[in-house]
Amino acid sequence: MQWLLRDVDVLGRGRRDIALDGGAIIDPALVGPAARSVGCSGLVALPALVDPHTHLRDPGAGDAETIATGLRAAAAGGYGAVFVMANTEPVADTAAVVEYERDTAERAGLCDLHPIGAVTKGLAGQELADLEAMASSRAAVRMFSDDGMCVGRSDLMREALERISALGGVLAQHSQDLALTAGAQLDEGELSRALGMTGWPAMAESTIIARDAIMAGHLGARLHVCHISTATGVEVVRWAKAQGFQVTAEATPHHLALDSGATAAGDPDFKVNPPLRGTADVAAVREGLLDGTIDMIGTDHAPHPDSAKGCDWSRAANGMLGLETALAVVAELFVRTGRMSWAQLADRMSTRPAGLLGLGHRYGGDLSVGRPGNLCLIDPQRPWMVDPAGLSSIARNTPYKGRTYHARVVATVLHGRPTFDLDGVFAAG
User: Fold this and answer.
1) Distance between CA atoms of 321 and 55, rounded to whole angstroms?
2) 209: helix, coil or strand?
3) How far apart are CA 104 and CA 58, in angstroms?
4) pLDDT 10s per residue in the chain (429 long)?
5) What backbone phi and psi angles, to 5 degrees, belong to 226?
6) H-type helices in 154-301, by residue range?
7) Residues 6 or more apart from 190 whose CB is under 8 A from it?
8) Strand pairing partners for 18?
9) Annotated catalytic residue within 300, 347, 379, 421
10) CA distance 6 to 416
11) Rounded distance, CA 326 to CA 252, Å?
12) Would you list the DSSP string of 292-337?
């Protein structure tokens, strides 16, 4: 089917028509009389978003998320592809599990899913998983991570970097020195001391980033730093890049938009790992994203059942939802304030994440003729309040509940086919 998206503002650079045919963007002059037309005046078209860091809990109990519900949430958030972390039950440390993830997503057809394989068996940090089997599987895994846990042993980290490098892949590290964060509940500082809770010190992040960056530099391997949250962590990444090391980094919407003050009331929906940080750290992470030290935005979408969040802070699980709110939060913080253009947002949330694993031919880009028909439509002036009950995820643990944002995804198109259509404009086209 051919589609003609009329009078849409492409990446905030000016209005034109976009024509889609057979999963690709074509010259509007080639559209036939049977094409379905969609009026897009007032909307902004961006390449479909790509999330380098998602948790979908499938395989698992199904009480927090499934691949189907998670991908529905991703499509509603404007995403065309997500990279899913390995902390499933069972852990995604074998070819069988990553193939299950990929095959299940293909049947859902809502959003492309790229499995991330575990670095170590069972995420236990003691023995490397069969990285080669996952890489040669139907899932063709090229990113590996023990996210949620840190690959703490230096000998294992070295071997993992060497083997993953030989596969043409990248190791994504959850940078946390576990010896410095035992029992940690929130950011180390005045608030943790006032509450009498164990703090999570900033140096527990930056020291691991430094170790890993130096190792990656010496080995010629690629390192991706997950959910960077501290000023010192940003500085270490900046230094590593200046040395020519192959280091990339991501920041989450919540570490960009929220600070540790939000945790004072004890709402477990604000409990996350790494924790929300102080205002100086938040400012440094924002600047790091703007100046390119931090390459991209990853949601760290982490759904939990009510039982894991509807309890006191000390017993609550870490993590928060992110797929359906990420674009709105980032746009409110940067585009609405004039610190970032729509094109720059698309670069951080689509093009650079796609390039992380050499998928720039499938996602991201400038929506020119010949590019894949993967895009999302944004209404930049559509105030909406986040209602947990209205989200697509099974889980409801969002820290943004009750907050109003002004930009909203109204449609997502994957391979030339609408996968999300808030107002039914494609159905009516």
Assistant:
1) 9
2) helix
3) 10
4) 899 999 999 999 999 999 999 999 999 999 999 999 999 999 999 999 999 999 999 999 999 999 999 999 999 999 999 999 999 999 999 999 999 999 999 999 999 999 999 999 999 999 999 999 999 999 999 999 999 999 999 999 999 999 999 999 999 999 999 999 999 999 999 999 999 999 999 999 999 999 999 999 999 999 999 999 999 999 999 999 999 999 999 999 999 999 999 999 999 999 999 999 999 999 999 999 999 999 999 999 999 999 999 999 999 999 999 999 999 999 999 999 999 999 999 999 999 999 999 999 999 999 999 999 999 999 999 999 999 999 999 999 999 999 999 999 999 999 999 999 999 999 987
5) -75, 150
6) 154-166, 190-195, 203-219, 231-242, 253-257, 279-291
7) none
8) 5
9) 300
10) 15
11) 8
12) TSS-EE---B----HHHHSS-GGGSPP-B--TTTHHHHHIIIIITT
Rounded-to-integer distance, Cα 373 and Cα 369, Å: 9
d(CA 173, CA 226): 6
Place of tokens 């390449």: 47
107 membership: H or E segment, kind and range: helix 95-108
Could you tell me the pTM of the whole model? 0.98
Placement of tokens 């802070």 in the chain: 313
Beta strands 2-10 and 36-39, pairing class: parallel
User: What's the distance, CA 422 to chain centroid?
Assistant: 22
The encoded tokens of residue 31 equal 């559209």
Dist CA 209 CA 245 (whole Å): 12
Bridge pairing between strands 186-187 and 199-200: parallel
Known catalytic residue at 300: yes
- Cα torsion 274, 278, 280, 286 to 10°: value is 50
Helix axes 203-219, 154-166, angle to 10 degrees: 50
